[in-house]
Amino acid sequence: MTKTKAAHAQDAKIPTQAALNPGDEAPPGTKGTGDDVCPDCHGKGRIDGAPCATCGGSGSITRAVGGA
What we know:
Blueprint: H1 5-12, E1 33-37, E2 46-47, E3 50-51, E4 60-64
Antiparallel strand pairs: 1-4, 2-3
């Protein structure tokens, strides 16, 4: 019996990590974090026609929330 391409891909189990932008405090989806409007471009994703360096052009950053 031969494996399918999908089975080979599952065998590899290479972890993927979302790219962090300079304004992110943690990777997206991390427990205890949430999206926030970028403080530099105010959610527009661009500054003077160029992609915002803080949010990578997305308009949002990942920020830690809560805290005790």
